[in-house]
## 1
Amino acid sequence: MTSPTASVVRRTTAALVLVLSLASCSGGDDSDTSASTATASAAADVSASETTGTEPTASTTPGTVSSRLGQPGATLVPAPGTTASGIPSNTSPTPVSTAPPGPVARRRSAAPGGYTLDTTGTFTSDIGGEQPIDSESSLRVDPAVGEDQHSSLSGDQGSTEQTVRFSSTSIDLVQLKLTTPAFVKEFRPVKPVQLLPQPPTVGRTWKWTIVSTDDATTASLEAKVARTETIVIGGEKVVCTVVTSTLTLSGDIQAVSKMQTWVADRYQLTVKEHAVTTGTVQNVNFTSDTTSVMRSTKPTG
């Protein structure tokens, strides 16, 4: 699904997908591109989360990143497919549900089906100058299973897929996979990390850090429920919760994305986003400034 701010991670990294693909097509070093396409390995995945605000959130755990990164208060978590002691396991760190929709998912999941988003903006790099962006992407939301909901977003430059989990106090990220012409990246935090507190009270803040399954990319998020706002989507007035966030990627991918995300409270959909991303890929500096808007809150198919 693209439930409340699942896109805080998804759409920031989706914007980066476009950036990396354009940079790659512009003539990056072949050896760098080859290294970027490495798929998920059994290296350790590290996750930590912290929530602050008017009330605690039970689904997140205070802390910082792994001691491997040299930060205090760190917790090292097992690699995908292993137990805390490193012994192979038959399940992923966060198993995806297979049961019928649970009570929370029935209330909060997005309507399954297809949605279309239009993205406009600009991409500027050292080697290509400024280029316009005018693209269409397709979102496919699957029916909820247990308290989880899976969705996929595809466009010209690749795809992202994710699974989110619903609880009485939070909507959390279970899994995120990015597939592009330049690389494949997957994040599977052992403990799901928060995408949006429930209820999304104005002023609530949260942050977390996760590491990709190939141990090469670190993603750190800081987010805040900024305000409520009514916007027009497909001729319909839609009441939204607006989340502001900053996502920082480090390691083999260097980028910072500052976002505003409009989440339709009634439909549990991210209906609009504005993202400004800056960074360096394959020694190329870039800036991406994009706005994505959903055509309609009503699914097709």
## 2
Amino acid sequence: MQKNIILIGYMGSGKTSVAEKLSKETGIQWYDLDAMIVQKEKRSISDIIRTNGEIYFRKLERATLTALLNKNETCLLSLGGGTPCYGDNLELIHKSGAITIYLKANIDTLTERLFREKSHRPLIAHLQDKAELSDFIRKHLFERGFYYNQANIKITTDNKSPEEIANEILKALLY
């Protein structure tokens, strides 16, 4: 595989878990965009946004994405859920020749996964119950679906393990 592989999708869709499995299977270096920003800034995404604002964060995100796409190596990259939806990030990704893979999960799956870990996710930590979380996810998916659905490959992740999803991606990449 010569092209970069980029996993996109809503938070909780499995991007990090699947990227980790794919990296082990293929030996391709894996980068997590949010983790790289946290490492560079030495503070959490929520702290960056709270202190400097979302626009500052999006500029950091764009600079980090550009640097990764310009690396002279093939890599596997998992993006934050909003990354492909801001500015012309998706256009930048497509122009780079990367293969984009949308990990698609339904609202019920995302609600169950995210409700268990909402305290670790600043964007949803304030939501009180599953109904409120489900409405929040539904609204975001409506707004972001246009971007996510431009991916080269779409994989449904509902009721599948990270291993099953990684294998499905590998099969899709080989054909």
